[in-house]
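Researcher: Go.
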Amino acid sequence: MADYIPEDIKKIQKKLATFEKDSRNYKKYTKILAKHIKRFSMKKRVSSHIKTIENVEKMQKENNLDKDE
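Model: Structure:
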């Protein structure tokens, strides 16, 4: 799976690049960008945990089937 940057984060970064550093809008968009990045990374983390749990369950089922034979 290739790593990618969502469109909303790209748009915020482009807008942020147009502002002067330490301006009011720069600080505002920095906070907005941080929230979007945090949400994106949490989604990736949760989906990774779900995949891990599914794989462990699958392995346990396979082991139980092997023992039954």
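Model: The CA atoms of residues 16 and 28 lie 9 Å apart.
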